[in-house]
Amino acid sequence: MPRKGNIFVKIVLFAVFIGVLFTGYFVYRYNFSYKLQKLVYKYDYVVVSYNMGHGINFEGYYTIVSIARLLRALSPDIVFLYDVDIGVKRSFSDDQVRKIAAGLGMEYTFGKLEKIGKGWNGFAVLTKYPIVFSELKLERGIDGEIAAGILHVILRLNNKRTHIYSVYFKKDSSAFETSFRELMDLVVKRGMSKYTIIASDFYVEPSQKIIDDFKYYFKDTSVKCAGECYNYPSVGPTMILDYIFVGEGFDVLSHRVFDADICKSAGRYLPVVCRLKMKLK
């Protein structure tokens, strides 16, 4: 007859074995789920910021077809467009954002900033992913005119609730500081998510305070830019006008100014392109 002590030891060893087995199972299940998520979900994103100058290049030609072509060449996931016309006579009353979005196979939302004749000029966010939510906030200058707009969009990237903010300043006025406070208030109200992408068409130098303010809260993707990041004018650029910032939920893989010949003939600005990797954990 086996001793009671031996039976107790066997029970303890069996319990330890079962515990190790269950621990291994849950670890395997988690890692398998994580690996499966990496296989199934896209987590590498191309983001483009581009002032299309309402489709008119330096020579005065209407270049909407060339603009659509250059954007397709970049294979973007998210596009921030600035100075976009809808129904304006100077751009042949085209719905520019609808045309470009159709060519890219994207959804879009448009922010109206300035009434021009029977149409509107403004800015837009285009995306391959379903838009869950969209809102526009307007900031007026001292003269009562609209000085800036903040377009807030919510997407689900990789099943993560991702906040997208597009900031467009119509004037290089004192509205910058006020508009930054408005933007930060909006971000805080909607939740300071680490999955945040902010793009802006600023008429400011990188050394100005508003850029430092953004860098305090978010990562500036231009730190990955090799060399100068000037994107205006399209020929012989000497200024940086487009900026992209991201939250801690993204790693910045690259940042560049797309300066192919088609860009120089398509418009007055060069598109800024960054590649992001979403952190899944």
Describe this structure in words.
The protein has 281 residues and is α+β, with helices and mostly antiparallel strands. Helix content is 31%, strand content 34%. The protein is built from 6 helices and 12 strands. It has helices at residues 4-40, 64-73, 96-104, 175-190, 209-217, 261-266; strands spanning 44-51, 78-86, 107-116, 119-127, 131-140, 146-157, 160-169, 196-201, 219-220, 242-246, 250-257, 272-278. β1, α2 (64-73) and β2 (78-86) form a beta-alpha-beta unit. α2 runs parallel beside α3. It starts with a helix and ends with a strand. The model has no long low-confidence stretch (mean pLDDT 85).
Largest sheet: number of strands, sense, barrel closure? 6 strands, mixed
Strand order in the sheet with the most strands: 3-4-2-1-12-11
First and last CA, distance? 54 Å
Mean pLDDT: 85
Report the total helices. 6
Strand content: 25-35%
What order do the SSEs take from the amino end to the carboxyl end, as H and E? HEHEHEEEEEHEHEEEHE
What gross morphology would you assign? elongated
Proportion in helices: 25-40%
User: What ranges have pLDDT less than 50 throughout 5 or more consecutive residues?
Assistant: none
User: What is the number of beta strands?
Assistant: 12
Radius of gyration: 25 Å
Q: Structural class per helix/strand content?
A: alpha+beta
Please provide a brief summary of the model.
By secondary structure, the chain is an alpha+beta fold. The protein is built from six helices and twelve strands. The strands form two sheets. Strands 3-4-2-1-12-11 form a six-stranded mixed β-sheet, with helices on one face. Strands 5-6-7-8-10-9 form a six-stranded mixed β-sheet, with helices on one face.
